[in-house]
Amino acid sequence: MSQQYYNGNGKGKGKAPADPDSEEQMPITGPSNANSTDNSFPFPTTTMRQPGPPNPGYMTVGGSGTTSYHASKLQNLIDTDSGYGDSSMAESVAWGRPLVGPNFHEDSPIHSLPPSHSTSQANLPQPDHRLHAAAIHQLWYNQHRGNLGRSISRAVDMLEGLQEMNVKWPAHYPSVQRTEVDMPARPSSRPGFQHTNTFSQHEFGSMSSPPQPLRRAMTSFDDYAESSCSNDSKPPEPRLVSPQIAQEFSILKLDLKLGALHQAELVHSLEKSSVASLLDGKIRSSIKHLQSLRERIEDTASKVLVTGDLNAGKSTFCNALLRRKVLPEDQLPCTSIFCEVLDSRENGGIEEVHAVHKNAVYNRNDESTYDVHQLKELEKIVLDNVKYTQCKVYIKDIRSIDQSLLNNGVVDIVLIDAPGLNSDTTKTTAIFTRQEEIDVVVFVVSAMNHFTQTAKEFIWAAAAEKAYIFMVVNGWDVIRDKERAEKAILDQVAGLSPRTHKESSELVHFVSSNAIPMAPGAPGGPGGSGSSSGGGGGDDPSDPKGKGKEKEKVQDFQKLEQSLRRFVLEKRARSKLAPAKTYLTNILNDVITLAEVNNEVAQSELDRVNKELREIEPALESSRRNRMEIGDEIEKNVEGVCNDVFDNTRTTLNTTIAEAGDECLNVPYPGLFSSFQYADDLKDAILSRVTASVADCEEYARQKTVGGVNILKQLGLKHLGNDYADIQFRPSVMFSRRRDALAKQVDIPTEAWDFVDWNSLLQSQEKFVGRSMAVTLATAVGSRLIGGPTWFDHAITAAKVMGSENLRKMAVPGAALAAVLAVWYVLNQIPNTLPHRLSTKIAAELDAIDYVHANSTRVSNSVRKVLRIPGENLRTGLARCVEQLSTKREETMKLRTESDVAHKYFSNLVRKGREQRSGLDAIDLEAPPPGASHY
Ligand SMILES: Nc1nc2c(ncn2[C@@H]2O[C@H](COP(=O)(O)OP(=O)(O)OP(=O)(O)O)[C@@H](O)[C@H]2O)c(=O)[nH]1
């Protein structure tokens, strides 16, 4: 038994009762009630105690004339400081309800009075003191409520901020890798829930302890285009998030029940943006839930949801609580709609059923939203699941104020009997949703069937905000080996709700609801008197042993009722405020975990982009420089090769053409009669020589081009690395088209004069004529002349001797002889003179058509054309490199800004989240109000 809970036995005896949590009913009542014994208004006076079972007795505290100055002051405080500005006192009065307060529970400060004082005061309650104590408790409750309300507002702001951030910078959701998925995350069977414990300082301590280094599984770093300029820096490998972190989420857990994949794997396989949008949905629903939580803690009523598996005995249990057969019970599934049982005073004291129309929002004052039925018609309504989804059952609780749950004098209770889980998916989902607006969950489980899978899932879902779940193990009468069954069920509870298990003596009850006797003559309802289900589990009532057993069952149930009252009424801070605190703690833990992960991700991205920028900046700079320098180098290389080729072609061709006549052309002279053929052959030979020379030049150009291409390739590889797109170059294709039909271009007709080399002929003729004349004269003049110094002198001398007349007569035969000699000479000289003559003619012709220059230009242009391609390719590559690096730099800078913003935001969120969590931690709903021990 936890010290947080009152034992139950003998409770109230000798102990000053007061309600620490009551807000609506201040324990103030008029003296007129002091001696009232009426059960319907059973307020014990300060001197009288309510007889009966060891229930928490009620007291009448204070009186119109007895309230002290301090009490009035405190009362004023309460009226003005309700945490939300409302006056609970005023509400109570307005509702016309008795202003009473239940006893203080066990941990109430009243119990800490010294024994002597306690004994002396036990039978003489001190109205002022109790009023003070109650007022202090009320203040304390209101303060907590106010703090929680503010905490909820801050959490909503925080989540809205996170939602906005999630749009700008899709949040990273921790996930695990497949190998890690299968690791058992925790010993319990409960998946993914760790933060339900909102009360343990130890656990908070561990939560706020420095977080373990986070590891990340999302490979969500954008893969940048790898450095295109030999910049091979890769982003660091993302680290892995430990499975625990992924498992730790309770509210923001992405519940992806798709296919056979584990949810963590599924998250891992999703796009970053899809995860972010799923997360957005979770955040949105969490904001909605927080808003409804705020409404719930502001709501003065407490909603108790009785749920559990189909046929677990929920209706029977509710009837047993009411001691009336109000709700239909059946062996077959019968509750198909939500039945909310309320005190009939909230319906002007009239007992009736309001069956709420589908899709209508119930308004008691608007009859169009519901149909009115009598209580006895309830069974029919409950079975008719087509027209209605819920009904409000207003009943008079026949039990006394200290026994009744509905008419408890403390707080308005709504008891909700839900359809059984597993009846169908829609209803099961509706129950899951409904529990979110509920303060207290009473989970009825069949003693025989234990917890089904849906039951477990429901409890896990409820645990997001309810650390404590009131568990009713029903049908205990049919269990033989009770000890074993109890252990088995408690073990299961330990796995499902550790906090509930820890306080199992208060929160887990083994009962037989059908054994509870119904009030005789209870009005309305489907059943009459007798036990809830008209039986006692088969026990024979005439058997004294059986009677003993019956008594035991009733006592067990009464014990349950006391615990439930304590949980719902006295421990309101726990039942009403604790769910809000639990949910807040869980959502804050989730937000902090998410923020820590994202803070680290943002930090690592920031580091990465900074590192990248440090690499990109110089790379971009050198890339720009390269582009300029290499551009020049390309030009220089291409022009160098082209000029070389041009010069080489021109020189080679000029030389070839000039020397063509001198070279051995290997054309045999066929004789005088084939002179023209010889001339043609010679022409062909000379032109072939020139053509061969052109081919040599082309070959030279080809080799030079290969060299040039290689230089460009080397440049490309050096400056572009692997990004250099090599272009295949086939040198053989160069100059493959027949370059020149030189023979056609150079059409030189052979003329007769071509055979005569006039220069040499003239020289020879002069020689021949002179010689023939000299010979003639010498012969004529005779020996007189012999011994002269030269033939010319002789000729002169002879001419003088002969006289001009004789000379004239000899001229004709001399000339004829000279002509004959000349012709003979010319014909003889053809093989020597014709090649020169033709080569000169061809050279002149080639010169006329600018052959050498044209070919030099053609060949060098061809080389230029070929070299331009890799040159341009290299230029484009360099330009692309600069462009890519610039784009990358811009993107990286943008990412740096985003990561920086995200880093600041998430580190701020971690700080704010932790602050809020410690603020929330300081709201100690378990501790007694400070100063209450003085009363
Ligand atoms: N032996 C035994 N039978 C019980 C007990 N409580 C309920 N029953 C029987 O169990 C059957 C189902 O009871 P209900 O109260 O209708 O169960 P339920 O959970 O409300 O059913 P649905 O709302 O239809 O899911 C009835 O026949 C009850 O008489 C119990 O403690 N012991």
UniProtKB/TrEMBL annotation:
| Chain intervals with Basic and acidic residues compositional bias | 542-556
**Family matches, as PANTHER family:** SARCALUMENIN (PTHR10465:SF0), TRANSMEMBRANE GTPASE FZO1 (PTHR10465)
Q: Does the keyword Iron apply?
A: no
Record lineage: Eukaryota, Fungi, Dikarya, Ascomycota, Pezizomycotina
This protein's GO cellular component annotations are:
mitochondrial outer membrane
> What organism does this protein naturally occur in?
Zalerion maritima
Q: Name one GO biological process term.
A: mitochondrion localization
* The organism's place on the tree of life at top rank: Eukaryota
One MF term in the entry's GO annotations: GTPase activity
Name recorded for this polypeptide: Mitofusin FZO1
**Principal location listed in the UniProt entry:** mitochondrion
| Dynamin-type G domain mapped to chain residues | 298-579
Q: Where is the composition biased (Gly residues)?
A: 522-539
* Amino acid composition bias (Polar residues), ranges on this chain: 30-49, 115-124, 194-209
Q: Any idea where this protein resides?
A: Mitochondrion outer membrane
**Keyword Signal attributed:** no
UniProt keywords, alphabetically: Coiled coil, GTP-binding, Hydrolase, Membrane, Mitochondrion, Mitochondrion outer membrane, Nucleotide-binding, Transmembrane, Transmembrane helix
Q: Where is this region: Disordered?
A: 1-66, 105-124, 182-216, 515-556
